[in-house]
Amino acid sequence: MGPSSPNIKSFFKGQEIFKEGQESSVAYMIKKGAVNIYKVLNNEKIILARLCEGEIFGEMGIISKGIRSANAEAAEYCDLVILTDQIIFKLLEQCPKTVQYMIRLFVKRLARTGEMISAKGHRSNFTSICRILDLCYQNHLSMPREQAKKERNHDMGLEYNKFCKVIRGIILVSQGEIDAVISKLKSLRIIEVSDIRTGRAFPDRFVKIADPLNFLEISNNLFKELQKTAYTSTSELQIIDIYEVAEMLNSDPKILYKKIANEDFPETMFLFDRCKVSEWASQKEPEYFSKVKKKKKGFDELEDIEDIVFVDNGTLKDVFNRLGYHKLGVLISIARDEARKKILMNIAKKIAQIIQDEVRGDVDEAEAEDVVFELFEMVREIKGGSK
Question: How far is 66 from 386, CA to CA, in rounded Å?
Answer without folding.
Answer: 72
